[in-house]
Specification:
Blueprint: H1 2-36, H2 46-52, H3 54-71, H4 89-119, H5 127-140, H6 142-149, H7 154-175, H8 192-212, H9 215-235, H10 238-245, E1 258-261, E2 282-292, E3 298-311, E4 315-318, E5 322-328, E6 334-342, H11 343-349, E7 354-374, E8 380-382, E9 386-390, E10 398-403, E11 409-414, E12 434-439, E13 454-459, E14 462-463, E15 475-476, E16 484-505
Antiparallel strand pairs: 1-2, 2-6, 3-4, 3-5, 3-7, 7-16, 8-9, 9-10, 10-13, 11-12, 11-16, 14-15
Helix pairs in contact: 1-3, 1-4, 3-6, 4-5, 6-8, 8-9
């Protein structure tokens, strides 16, 4: 223990400037976070822009401090001066961890307690969640610690970090070409192997370096772990797993929504040149569908969609499963399924009659714990959510904050373009102007990683008028005092897969010539 404290005191003398900078950045972060909850805090201002850099500089200062702290007794090579001292590696490792606990984890924990108190949330019920956040923060520190134990100097660590980042971008781009891989996040228990390797490999490398200082073996271990994760990603049969999790709907297990393909919309008066468009070498296809059979107080969510086509001359095209986010609500009667494809492929088949097959991976959420609230003036509490107030931005919204993670929430209300001063002059809106927003619980209900225990989010209730497509003509809900808003907790009730098929479809009748919001864009296969 005396040796551990000796190393700890030496590190304080050598690294107090980095500690001071990180504490100042943490103080600025706390001030900015608590000020941002205010109803009068400007969304866009010079102060806001300046403090936005704190969110980047604070973790960077921690990474720099960690790398320099480990390099104080470098583990690469065998000619370091500290090796000649009677240091025991457990004492050295514990001293470094003690430094991180005292000068990063403890100040962050105090800051989290302060933020919880200022946000109006009780501290005692959230202590377990704060402990989880501290563990998550420690796991994030594995990256700079691992980088430091296999490099000799700060310059070398910076070069390796940049190289690793570039490799990550390249490998990520290549892995995304694996059919249906982009929808892996919609699978239950996906990424368990990668998560285990991502935790075990750095821990093993750190312990190996401190115990034996076998640098090249540690580097080889890390490279092998990275290669194993990529290999598993490539060979995983995502399509089979997706279709197993989302069984095809039948009479015993009906889909939460019924869709049928509608005739194509009338052609625009003036078509955009087909050689080049807003999406460059990509063409957006929009298939209008009739929506029905969505149960009251529920929503059908399309987690992903697969598009396949067959045509003359044995032509076949398959998009693979791609993530989505389309929502189907009880008041809707029509919608559009959109996908993209390469322009050169589109030009070769746009006039040919095609057999189109659409598959949607659906999950249903039912409302529970319904509660209706007449909006008061100023800030107010929402049961199961946190605290909200009416935002003052261009788009009417409720700005809310909750403790530890974003809550699962369904918000509903009647929308109208009338401002609060005009509400009494506007007749009751028809049911088609009932709008909803689904917020799924962040990180599956677990605490979010990060520093702040307060999670902010906004609730927008807006819809398109049936006769307009322009975003400027959206029908929005103005959150006025006394306006009723219904809140509910979404409960997932199951997974199903819905198939749609249509023959003799000609793509040029469904090409999108103007681009707005709400497109379900799929990665096009070459």
């Amino acid at each position: 223990m005396s040796q551990t404290l000796h190393i700890f005191r030496k590190d304080i003398r050598h690294h107090w400037p980095e500690v001071l900078v990180s504490l100042l950045l943490l103080a600025a972060f706390v001030w900015h976070e608590s000020a941002a909850w205010s109803e009068d805090f400007p969304s866009f201002s010079l102060l806001q822009i300046l403090f936005s850099f704190v969110n980047t500089l604070m973790p960077l200062s921690w990474c720099l401090m960690i790398v320099r702290l480990v390099h104080e007794e470098s583990l690469v090579g065998d000619r370091q001066f500290w090796v000649t001292r009677p240091y025991e590696w457990p004492s050295l490792l514990v001293a470094k961890l003690l430094f991180l606990v005292v000068f990063i984890h403890l100040p962050v924990f105090v800051a989290q307690l302060l933020l919880l108190s200022r946000a109006g949330f009780p501290i005692a019920p959230n202590l377990t969640g704060l402990l989880g956040m501290q563990i998550g923060l420690g796991l994030l520190f594995l990256a700079p610690i691992t980088l430091a134990v296999v490099t000799r100097s700060l310059a070398q660590a910076l070069i390796v970090a940049i190289g690793a980042f570039l490799v990550f971008l390249v490998v990520g781009s290549l892995v995304s070409l694996v059919p249906s891989e982009t929808m892996s996040s919609a699978l239950e228990n996906s990424g368990i192997f990668q998560g285990f390797v991502l935790l075990a490999a750095p821990v093993a490398a750190i312990l190996w370096q401190y115990a034996r200082r076998r640098t090249w073996r540690s580097r080889t271990l890390l490279l092998a772990a990275g290669a194993a994760m990529v290999l598993v990603d490539v060979v995983t049969p995502y399509r089979t797993l997706i279709e197993r999790q989302y069984p095809l709907s039948d009479s015993a297990h009906p889909a939460p929504v019924q869709l049928s393909v509608l005739p194509p919309p009338p052609p625009p008066v003036k078509k955009a040149p087909s050689s080049q468009g807003p999406l460059g070498n990509t063409v957006l296809i929009s298939i209008p569908v009739h929506v029905s059979a969505v149960a009251k107080h529920s929503v059908a969510l399309a987690n992903g969609m697969l598009v396949s086509m067959e045509g003359p001359g044995n032509f076949k095209w398959d998009s693979g499963w791609n993530p989505s986010g389309m929502e189907f609500w009880p008041e809707e009667s029509s919608s559009a399924l959109q996908f993209s494809m390469k322009r050169h492929l589109y030009e070769s088949i746009k006039s040919s009659p095609l057999h189109l097959h659409l598959s949607l991976a659906l999950s249903e959420f039912k409302e529970s714990s319904l509660r209706e609230l007449s909006l008061p003036e100023g800030e107010f509490a929402v049961q199961g959510v946190g605290y909200c107030h009416v935002g003052r931005g261009y788009f009417p919204a409720l700005n809310c904050r909750s403790a530890l993670h974003e809550p699962g929430l369904i918000a509903s209300g009647v929308v109208t373009n009338a401002s609060c001063s005009e509400q009494d002059k506007v007749p009751s809106a028809p049911s088609r102007n009932v709008a909803h927003q689904l917020l799924r619980s962040g990180h599956g209900g677990f605490v979010n990683p990060g520093v702040s225990p307060i999670k902010t989010f906004s609730i927008y209730l807006q819809t398109f008028d049936d006769t307009h497509e322009s975003p400027e003509e959206r029908v929005r809900m103005h959150f006025c005092p006394g306006a009723p808003v219904r809140f509910a907790t979404p409960i997932r009730s199951g997974y199903t897969r819905l198939d749609l098929q249509t023959d003799q479809i000609t793509l040029e009748n469904y090409e999108v010539h103007s681009y707005g919001y709400g497109a379900l864009t799929l990665r096009a296969l070459p």
